[in-house]
Predict the 3D structure of the following.
Amino acid sequence: MNFNFKPAINNTGNELLSAFRASDSGKRIGWKLRLLLIGWSLCLITGFGVAVQITPDSRGFGTHQKLGFAPCVIRNQLSIPCPSCGMTTSFSHFVRGQISQSAQANSSGLVLAIVCLVMIPWSWISVYHKRLWLISNPESCLLWLMCGLVTITLIEWFFRLTF
């Protein structure tokens, strides 16, 4: 006889909304990972703070030089843009609400900025609930996220080199 009875959850028919309502959704995390998430979110906030402080370069790339970094080696040596050319400029436009300029500077930078912006509250919600909020398989989620960002970056780079 099976005494491991779980009561049925009242489902309203919308699984997405029920995932947001579920208090036990996501993989449990310990104190070390919670500290890591707090640190990560603070790094993201700092990155956005730096992006606010620098003015986007009018060329659509090269904003990173205002932070003391060298010019892009690939652009200087090969006269072609690298996959990340315009990424800092894109972030700088994004924090100013200039979404079209952000996409024009580097569309993968815009997507990355949006992902980073979403990760800040997600990290704090996860820390509060002691679970990776809405994420039951973090390795798979991270793999999909990274593959998606790399794919967008490579597709954009292909179009920049072709057209």
